[in-house]
Every structure is written in structure tokens, then in C-alpha cells.
Write a structure and sequence with these properties.
Layout: H1 2-46, H2 50-101, E1 110-112, E2 115-116, H3 122-138, E3 141-145, E4 148-152, H4 163-172, H5 179-192, E5 194-196, H6 204-217, E6 226-230, E7 233-237, E8 242-245, H7 247-260, E9 266-269, E10 272-275, H8 282-289, E11 297-300, E12 303-306, E13 311-314, H9 318-325, E14 332-339, E15 355-363, H10 369-382, E16 386-387, E17 392-394, H11 395-399, E18 410-415, E19 418-423, H12 427-440, E20 444-447, E21 474-476, E22 483-490, E23 493-500, E24 508-519, E25 523-527, E26 536-540, E27 545-556, E28 559-571, E29 576-580
Parallel strand pairs: 1-5, 3-9, 25-29
Antiparallel strand pairs: 1-2, 3-4, 6-7, 7-14, 8-10, 11-12, 13-14, 15-23, 16-22, 17-21, 18-19, 20-21, 22-23, 24-27, 26-29, 27-28
Helix pairs in contact: 2-5, 3-4
């Protein structure tokens, strides 16, 4: 019993001790529990229940799918629109191409040098361009410098356009690519147009000839040194400073004017510059005049005549000649020595030149004593000249300088479009008469210029002008045998015969100058106070200018064997001048 009570007492004490411990524990844990509860509350607040998370996830997925579907629909619509546009464009291109497939005409908007070829066939385009370009290339350009004037056009330099190539190029526009390229080109032409600028083709040698002719005829032009033989002496005339055209610039201006001129009377001022003459080359002159003497002879098989050649050389040393021309003077005279061969041409008889190869004559006014004298002097210089095969004849060298000392007189010449008096007037009648005799003898002409104005004594296209120191008439004995020139001026007729030996085949020569167009002359009125009021006196009659082309025909037994174009010439009109009383 006692032991039982003792156990109960122990039990109670143990319980009390445990309760006390629990109270102490609870007392110590209170702050920790509050913190813990606060943390838990926050976690609960942030933590999404599983069910809520699923709902959010579902909503997000649905929104994404909706956006995806929306974008997909937009893409499909855009693709559809693009596809429709491509289809429409392809359909339009096909229809546009089919519409132009059988179109043989040049498309709208295509021009050549500004000339519209819209809707033309190739044949129609060729005809139109030919008409337009012919008018352009025939339009006159007047070259002027002080009193000098001269007409030129594209035909004189062989100017042309390749019309066939231009039409082919124009026709190929809108046809040379694929369907899309062709359609784009056609639309571009309709909106912006397409111009083809052609290249001007021309004969550069003919252009050079025009420039040379300008230089030879410019007033106050440069004069090169020249020489001739007279009375056993070599006469050298020094050159003189003067103007020449700026050749390359003049060529550019001429070509530009031809490409842009559409009407006549377009004036072009010749650009010029001062130029010094070339120095006298005495060694070159000596080499040209020096000749070894040769006897005349002939052979029978084959029959060939070889006329004598008289030896020519300076009668002074080269050092003396060089010293002479180094001094300042109007002219220099070098004495010559001649060596006659043992057998001259005359000694072999008339067999040397048995046949008359050609003859040509022109008429002159025998009552005009001054002009007649000039013709006689020039013809006398030429008379008896013998040329070996291949030898060249120079009118200026044979006739020499036309001076008062040589006996030449004042007579009518052309200058600045007028007839005025000048020294040795009429001398060109001899050069022109010789020119035609040479042509009829079927000899080769190497240098010849036409007059600036029509010459009354011969047909236009058959004349040959000469100016000492600048314009020469030259030809070569192109026959197998020597020839001899016989010139005579008498009783109003200037006549030149050419003798030689006929060849196995002799051609008949026919010359045909053709007038292409005329340039009407104008009337110029000049007030003359010496005349009564209103009275008119014609001082100078007018003559129309013209353009010519001259042909040379060779005939055998009456049949034409060949036709050659000798020259294309332009002659300015001679204006009528009327003096009128005030």
C-alpha cells in the first residue's frame, strides 16, 4: 500500500514536471509560430492551386491558337492577293503580247533623229527617212570669211546615213526580248519615247578636199614658196604669211552643220589662224629640177618613141644658191645650165608623134587685147611640151608666175562674187581648154579645181581654175607612148591638140556634165550719184549658180565600156548689179 502510494506520488510529480516543460515550450514557441503562420499565409497567397493553374494555362493556349489562326488567315489572304495580281499581270502580258504579235509596224514612241516612225512599216519608214535625210543632206551651208563665200552640202563630202540599219533597229524595239522585256519596252516607249541618234557617214578625203579648197581661196591666205623656169633661169618666189582655216575645227563645224541644217542659207564663219609659209628647201628644188641629158630614139618591135631629154642643173654651187635664198627678197633668180643631147626628138622626124589623140577649143573675145595677150602668153609656155609615159604635167610650173614683168595684163577675173579686173585675167581659159583636151586623150588627171563662179567660155563641170602658188592643174601621161602638147591662140579661138601614138585599143571618150540643181542669182542695187534720179544702169548681169556632176564614158565600136564620175562641183551665182540714180 505504502509502495503504491509512493508510485502514485512519483507519477504525479512526473506529470507536473512534463506540464511545466510543455508550458515553457509553448511560451518559447509563440513568436516562432506567428512568424511561421505569416510565412504560410504569404505562400498561400502566392501559390496557385493546381486547378487555377490549369485554367490559366488553358486560356494562354487558346489565345496563342487564336493569334496563330488570325496570322494564318492574313497570310493566306496576302498570298491570294499576290497570286491574283501575278495572274492578272501574266494574263495582261499574254494578251498584250498577242495583241502585238502580228503587228509588223514600228511601235509608238520610236523616233530616229527626232523623226517619228510611229505605226510605219519598214518600207514606209525607209521612204520617210530617205526623204527627210535627202532634204537635210542637200541643204546648203554657206562658208564665209570676209569677202569669201562658198556653198557646201552633205552630198559634196559623200555624207549619208545607213537607213536600212536604222529602220531595222527601230523595228526591233519591243521585239528583241522575252514577253516581259518586250512589254516593258513597249510601255516605256509609250510613256517616255525612244530616240535613235544615227551616225553620219562621210568620205574623209572629200572633206579634206573641201578644206583644201577653202584654204586655197581664202582672201589674205598664206602663200607657199614656189618656183618656175623662165628664160634659162630658175625663179623662186618666197611664201607670204597669211591666214589658213583651223582645219580640224572647220571639219567639226561642217559636219555639225550638215547634221543639224534643215534649210538653205545657213551661214558658217570659217575659223582661221595666222600661219607662216614653209621655208624654201633649196636642196629639194634642186633635186626636182635636175635632169640628166638623154638622146631621143625609137624602137620598131614594139614601136616605141623615146624623146630626147635636155639636161638641166644649177649654174652655181649649192652653197651659193643656199646663201642667195637666205636673204630677204621678193624673188630669187638662180641661173641654170642646159645640156642638149646629141640626138633630139626633132631629129627622129615626125614619127615620134604621128597621131592626133585629142583636140579641144574654146572661144574668146579677140577685141579684148589685154585678155588675148594673157591667153597667148600662157599658151606659148605650154606649146611644144613633151611628156614621157608616167611623167606629170604641172600648169603652174610650166607657165610660171603671172607677173607684169612676164608681160601679163589686167583683165576680168572673178573675186568675191563679182567680176573685177585683175592681173593675168583669162588665164584659166587655157587651163580649162587643156583640161578637156587631156580628158579626151584619156589621160589621168591628178589635180583639178572648179571655179567658184560659172565660167562663160566652157560648160560648168568641165573647167579647171589655177592660182599661182595655191591651185594647180596637173595630169599624168598615162599612155604607153610619149605625148606632145600643141597650143595655139589665134582669131578668137584657143585650141590645144595632143599628139602621140595610138595604142592597140583606142577608146572614144565622151564627157557629160549634168546639172543637179540651180541657185538663182539675186539683184543688188547700188546708189550712183552720177546718174539722174531713178535712172538704172545694169553694171553686171546675173548668172544662176548650180551643182553639177560630170561623167566620163569610154566607148569601143560605139558601145559604152565604162562610166566614171569625174567630179561634183558647186558654182555660186553671179549676182546682178544695178546702179540707180538717187
Amino acid at each position: 500500500m505504502v509502495e503504491k502510494e509512493k508510485n502514485n506520488k512519483n507519477t504525479e510529480e512526473i506529470v507536473k514536471i512534463e506540464e511545466k516543460k510543455e508550458k515553457e515550450v509553448e511560451k518559447n514557441e509563440i513568436p516562432n509560430i506567428e512568424i511561421k503562420n505569416e510565412i504560410i499565409a504569404k505562400e498561400k497567397k502566392q501559390e496557385t492551386p493546381k486547378e487555377d493553374f490549369k485554367v490559366v494555362e488553358e486560356k494562354q493556349y487558346n489565345n496563342y491558337e487564336a493569334n496563330l489562326n488570325k496570322k494564318s488567315k492574313k497570310g493566306i489572304i496576302a498570298f491570294s492577293i499576290i497570286a491574283i495580281l501575278i495572274l492578272i499581270l501574266a494574263l495582261f502580258s499574254t494578251m498584250f503580247s498577242l495583241a502585238n504579235l502580228n503587228n509588223v509596224r514600228i511601235i509608238d514612241g520610236v523616233t530616229v533623229k527626232g523623226i517619228s516612225l510611229k505605226g510605219l512599216t519598214k518600207e514606209e519608214a525607209k521612204a520617210k527617212l530617205t526623204e527627210e535625210f535627202t532634204r537635210e543632206l542637200q541643204s546648203n551651208i554657206t562658208l564665209t570669211y570676209k569677202d569669201y563665200s562658198s556653198l557646201i552640202n552633205g552630198e559634196q563630202i559623200g555624207a549619208s546615213y545607213d537607213i536600212d540599219a536604222l529602220v531595222d533597229e527601230a523595228h526591233s524595239i519591243g521585239r528583241s526580248g522575252n514577253i516581259l522585256e518586250n512589254n516593258y519596252t513597249i510601255l516605256k516607249c509609250l510613256i517616255e519615247g525612244e530616240n535613235i541618234e544615227p551616225q553620219l557617214n562621210y568620205d574623209n578625203q572629200l572633206l579634206e578636199n573641201v578644206v583644201d579648197d577653202v584654204n586655197a581661196k581664202l582672201p589674205e591666205g598664206v602663200t607657199q614658196s614656189a618656183y618656175y623656169v623662165e628664160d634659162g633661169n630658175l625663179i623662186i618666189t618666197p611664201g607670204k604669211e597669211g591666214v589658213v582655216s583651223q582645219e580640224e575645227r572647220l571639219k567639226e563645224l561642217i559636219l555639225t552643220s550638215i547634221k543639224t541644217t534643215t534649210e538653205d542659207d545657213n551661214t558658217l564663219e570659217v575659223p582661221v589662224e595666222i600661219k607662216q609659209p614653209e621655208a624654201i628647201d633649196i636642196e629639194k628644188i634642186h633635186n626636182e629640177i635636175y635632169v640628166e641629158p638623154k638622146d631621143a630614139y625609137f624602137t620598131t618591135e614594139p614601136f616605141t618613141i623615146y624623146p630626147h631629154v635636155e639636161g638641166v642643173d644649177f649654174a652655181i654651187t649649192m652653197e651659193e644658191a643656199q646663201k642667195l635664198v637666205s636673204q630677204s627678197a621678193e624673188e630669187y633668180t638662180i641661173p641654170l645650165k642646159y645640156t642638149t643631147p646629141n640626138i633630139t626628138t626633132n631629129k627622129i622626124g615626125t614619127e615620134a608623134f604621128p597621131d592626133l589623140l585629142s583636140s579641144f577649143s574654146t572661144k574668146y573675145d579677140a577685141s579684148n587685147k589685154n585678155r588675148s595677150t594673157n591667153l597667148e602668153l600662157a599658151a606659148g609656155k605650154i606649146n611644144g611640151t613633151v611628156l614621157m609615159p608616167g611623167e606629170e604635167f604641172s600648169f603652174n610650173k610650166v607657165v610660171g608666175e603671172r607677173t607684169i614683168e612676164a608681160g601679163y595684163k589686167e583683165a576680168h577675173i572673178y573675186s568675191g562674187g563679182k567680176v573685177v579686173d585683175g592681173l593675168a585675167g583669162g588665164i584659166c581659159q587655157i587651163s580649162s581648154t587643156l583640161y578637156d583636151a587631156v580628158l579626151y586623150a584619156n589621160l589621168d588627171v591628178t589635180s583639178r579645181k572648179n571655179h567658184q563662179l560659172p565660167a562663160g567660155y566652157i560648160k560648168n563641170g568641165l573647167d579647171a581654175t589655177v592660182v599661182y602658188g595655191s591651185i594647180d592643174f596637173k595630169f599624168v601621161n598615162s599612155r604607153k607612148y610619149p605625148i606632145k602638147i600643141v597650143a595655139e591662140v589665134k582669131n578668137g579661138v584657143a585650141k590645144i591638140d595632143i599628139y602621140g601614138v595610138k595604142e592597140e585599143v583606142e577608146y572614144e571618150v565622151r564627157l557629160e556634165p549634168v546639172v543637179l540643181s540651180y541657185t538663182p542669182f539675186k539683184t543688188q542695187y547700188i546708189t550712183d550719184t552720177s546718174l539722174p534720179s531713178g535712172k538704172q544702169v545694169v553694171q553686171q548681169n546675173g548668172t544662176n549658180g548650180c551643182k553639177t556632176v560630170t561623167y566620163k564614158y569610154l566607148l569601143l565600136n560605139g558601145n559604152i565600156i565604162s562610166k566614171t564620175e569625174l567630179s561634183r562641183d558647186t558654182y555660186n551665182p553671179i549676182n546682178k548689179i544695178v546702179r540707180v540714180g538717187p
